[in-house]
Design a protein that fits this description.
The complex is a heterodimer of chains A (304) and B (228). With 304 residues, chain A is α+β, with helices and mostly antiparallel strands. Chain A has six helices and twelve strands. By secondary structure, chain B is α/β, with parallel strands linked by helices. Chain B has a six-stranded mixed beta sheet with strand order 3-2-1-4-5-6, sandwiched between helices. Classes of the chains: A alpha+beta (304), B alpha/beta (228).
Chain lengths: 304, 228
């Protein structure tokens, strides 16, 4: 029996946007962060308007498919000391993974459509695949972490921040220029794999592994008056983890997201992973943990 | 009061700009009905704005006749907006009005952090200046290209092809207002549906389908004696 030691502590929260009938965000995380059991985090933001009436499901499909594929990818990265393997993995991450992800999401969404045809469409010509997929439109951000590798992917808006071992905050998947208005790339777009952005970051020295990874839907970053607000938020969150500890931030997070949602008007979701050795350090005295489970956590909004 | 890190928060502005034809052909009942319709639409705009608390609705008006000028130059929050009647005067210099608006759609003065602006054009005639140059100036601005556009054609003499080109989307049609009743309905629709559309997320900006985020209303067949 393999005993899996939890390397990361995770927290996540999702709040429904003001005036919205349903939360169309979804998130999940799985794994411990070991080579055999990579840590996977994902958040997705269903577009939510009438044209994307099933986007809450689309977001869930995106997260579910990502967790499955990224877990497989992370396990394959478990033995990247083999000559040439790292280069092959990088090539896969940048070129094949986005195609596999988009294909898996499309299959799941189209399968759902076939099983749940809109009653109003009965008797009408069957819509083409792109029209069906538009109903499920969603963004996605996901990351996989092993002791030797951090890889992340993003399609559409939302934010990924990585706090390095030295406390520096990076947003490696941020576009050079933010989209104006509320337009976003989407998994339902034509050739969506071309819109997937990839962050590839091997860890060559254990001491240099990032200490905090934060994924968020755009409801958070769009609530700040300044374009730098999200980066400052992550810097502040990192500081609060140092002063108030993991549980302090976990307790405060729902209120933070509700507050942000009042300004952005959007569903707002955050998932984060904190290196356990960092989380457990003073001044917050937490019990050292050894966890033998491999959990998959998701938020509990009811499914359509 | 939340202690969330990251600095101050703010909702995002939606800039709504009326472009109103005030040429002589609008004289009489048309301009009177237009003033009445816009004044009557303000409470409904406030209601839409209150339903979208994350959006801050700001209004401006440009009139065009022999010259184009700002009727409200400074963006006015919808709660503070009061309508002062516009008056007719001369030609139909739409191009000048579009050029005037294009300067406001640059960033700055438009903030990067905003929802899509709304451009609502109302006209009853044929432009008398180089309107294509004005439209090109609007299309050359990032926010101009993103703007939600609506066009209302008053009466049968309105040049629908110009309004169609302004809309820049074959999926959209100018809305015909051939009577006072239809004009009131069209103004009501433009002032509310377009604001809702501007504050909705849109996926896949290259997808022509999603460039029609709202459908124009079907106005009742006109059964009034007073038809323009």
């Amino acid at each position: 029996m393999t005993v899996l030691v939890r390397s990361w502590d995770t927290l996540a929260e999702s709040v429904q946007g003001t005036g919205k009938r349903q939360n169309q965000d979804w998130y999940a995380f799985a794994g411990t962060g070991s080579g055999a059991d990579p840590l996977v985090l994902a958040v997705a933001d269903g577009h939510g308007s009438a044209a994307h009436a099933r986007s809450a499901l689309g977001a869930r499909f995106a997260v579910d498919r990502f967790v499955a594929l990224a877990t497989e990818f992370g396990r394959a990265a478990g033995s990247c000391d083999e000559p040439g393997r790292l280069a092959r993995l990088m090539n896969y991450a940048r070129n094949d993974f986005p195609r596999a992800l988009v294909q898996a999401w499309r299959q799941e969404a189209l399968g759902h459509w076939s099983r749940h045809r809109p009653v109003a469409d009965l008797g009408r010509p069957e819509p083409d695949a792109d029209e069906k997929l538009t109903l499920y439109g969603t963004t996605l951000i996901g990351a996989v972490v092993t002791p030797w590798l951090l890889t992340a992917w993003q399609v559409g808006d939302g934010d990924l921040a990585v706090v390095g071992h030295d406390g520096s905050v990076g947003r490696p998947l941020a576009p050079a220029e933010e989209d104006l208005g509320d337009e976003t790339e989407s998994l339902c777009g034509p050739q969506a794999w071309r819109a997937v952005r990839t962050h590839w970051a091997p860890v060559f020295e254990e001491a240099r592994i990032p200490r905090l990874v934060v994924l968020s839907t755009d409801g958070l970053s769009k609530s700040f008056a300044s374009g730098d607000g999200f980066t400052e938020f992550v810097e502040g969150m990192d500081g609060r983890l140092a002063t108030e500890g993991f549980e302090g931030v976990r307790t405060a997070l729902p209120d933070w997201l509700r507050h942000a949602s009042r300004y952005s008007g959007d569903d707002t979701t955050l998932a984060a992973a904190l290196l356990h050795s960092y989380a457990a350090r003073p001044p917050t005295e937490t019990e050292p943990k050894t966890d033998t489970r491999t959990d998959t956590h998701t938020h509990t909004d009811s499914e359509n | 009061m939340s202690d969330i890190p990251g600095g101050p928060m703010a909702n995002r502005p939606v800039h709504f700009i009326w472009l109103l034809d005030c040429s002589y052909s609008m004289q009489g009942e048309k301009i009177a009905r237009l003033n009445y319709a816009i004044r009557e639409s303000v409470p409904e705009m406030r209601s839409v704005a209150h339903d979208n608390p994350a959006a801050q609705l700001l209004l401006r008006t440009v009139t065009f006749s022999t010259t184009a000028k700002w009727h409200h130059q400074t963006p006015v929050p919808v709660d503070d907006f009061t309508w002062q009647d516009v008056e007719v005067d001369g030609m139909t210099n739409l191009g000048e009005a579009l050029s005037l608006v294009s300067r406001e759609l640059q960033s700055p003065p438009m903030p990067q952090r905003a929802l899509k602006p709304v451009l609502a054009l109302v006209s009853d005639g044929v432009p008398t200046d180089d309107w294509k140059a004005g439209l090109k100036a609007v299309d050359a601005t990032p926010w101009g290209r993103k703007a939600v556009r609506v066009a209302i054609a008053i009466g049968h003499d309105a040049d629908r092809s110009v309004l169609q080109e302004f809309l820049a989307n074959p999926e959209l049609q100018p809305l015909d207002a051939n009577s006072p009743k239809q004009l009131a309905a069209a103004i009501r629709w433009a002032s509310t549906a377009a604001v809702k559309a501007a504050s909705q997320p849109v996926a896949g900006s290259a997808d022509p389908l999603v460039k029609q985020p709202f459908a124009p209303p079907v106005l009742d067949d006109d059964d009034e004696d007073d038809v323009w």
